[in-house]
Amino acid sequence: MRSTGAIVLLVLVLLVGFAGCAGCGTFNSLRTQDEQVTGAWSEVENQYQRRADLVQQVVSTVQGQADFESETLQNVIEARSRATSIQISADDLDDPEALAQYQAAQSALGSSLGRLLAVSESYPTLQANEGFLRLQDQIEGNENRIATARRDYNQAATDLNARIRTFPANIVAGFAGVDRREQFEAAAGTEQAPEITFD
């Protein structure tokens, strides 16, 4: 009888040890995925900041054009101001309202910038300005990098969210302080990229 009790105790110790190791592994992998989401978010912020910097340079260049449409320019300045005033930290990525506000401000800036670039085509002196043309190229490249950064963030968030929904990660996530992350959604009317031509 003693040997049976010892075997049962040994089996229980092994099961608890196995569960502890599995829990530690799950904890560590959840933390790793959480850091990947944070890193992907940092790249999104980095690209949006780059766009804000480029917009400031475009505004400075366009302001030199005395007869440029002031309303269009003012809309871009205000949209940039709103977009840069809304900051969201990686800790707030589980707040759908915060991400929606951030996304709306960035979308408004992108739309205003698109209108400014479209209107600028009517100004031959701007179109002949080498600096302005370089800025247009940089903006185009930056918009592509923003799309890539958002896609990478969404993928990292999707992977983490899917992991949190599985057992035993759903239990360990609470202990690890890892929450579901919100994702970027396409704004209405953005199913197709705007066509911007630089003649």
From TrEMBL:
The keyword Transmembrane helix appears for this protein: yes
Subcellular location: Membrane
Membrane topology, as annotated: Single-pass membrane protein
Gene3D superfamilies recorded: LemA-like domain
Chain segments annotated as coiled-coil in the UniProt record: none
Gene Ontology cellular-component terms listed: membrane
InterPro entries per UniProt: LemA-like_dom_sf, MamQ_LemA
The entry's keywords: Membrane, Transmembrane, Transmembrane helix
Record-linked SUPFAM superfamilies: LemA-like
Family to which the UniProt record says this protein belongs: Belongs to the LemA family.
Protein's name in the database: LemA family protein
Organism: Rubrivirga marina
